[in-house]
Design goal:
Bound molecules: zinc ion
Helix content: 25-40%
Number of strands: 4
Distance between the termini: 50 Å
Radius of gyration: 16 Å
């Protein structure tokens, strides 16, 4: 595979990837799954992956399945202590962030 092909496929990957702010993912895990412990080591320090091309956004991995013709994505978060990886389907998290606006978004709205 040439460099050009690899570049193209990674652009395609990002092009179709749903966009969600890293800070929204942090809010989700703090408010919805607060304090959840790693099943392997019992720590509760999780790392959320962000995108290389835009670190403010979360990195989602294609799940390889579609629902209602929508490709599904996963958010893989990793235990900071032992590396255990747990998977969350992206769509419920994105839905949550849309119905639970961030304080920054609300402040922005009231400025107008
Ligand atoms: Zn762990």
């Amino acid at each position: 595979m040439s460099d050009e092909t690899e570049k193209l496929s990674s652009d395609d990957l990002y092009k179709n990837m749903p966009k969600m702010l890293f800070s929204d993912a942090v809010r989700f895990f703090e408010q919805v799954t607060e304090g959840s412990a790693c099943p392997a080591c019992k720590a509760s320090k999780w790392k959320i992956p962000n995108r290389e091309d835009n670190p403010r956004l979360c990195f989602f991995r294609p799940a390889g399945l579609a629902r209602a013709s929508e490709n599904q994505y996963n958010l893989e978060i990793e235990c900071e202590i032992c590396g255990f990886v747990r998977l969350h389907r992206a769509s419920p998290i994105i839905r949550w962030t849309l119905t639970n606006a961030s304080p920054e978004l609300i402040a922005e709205f009231h400025k107008k």
